[in-house]
Specification:
Elements (H helix, E strand, L loop, with lengths): L10 H16 L7 H8 L2
GO molecular function, one term: hydrolase activity
Protein name: Amidohydrolase
Keywords: Hydrolase
Length: 43
């Protein structure tokens, strides 16, 4: 995602989306529960 192509979103939202996309691309442990996923990726 090119940042200059994202409209209507503030920098924090864009960062969260891009960070989330990177995590999903790199971590394909689909059997984890959302709670485990959030705990593992926090911070």
């Amino acid at each position: 995602i090119a940042l200059d192509h994202v409209e209507g979103l503030d920098d924090e939202t864009v960062w969260k989306l891009m960070r989330g996309n990177a995590i999903r691309m790199l971590d394909l442990d689909l059997d984890r529960t959302p709670e485990q996923y959030r705990a593992r990726t926090r911070g």
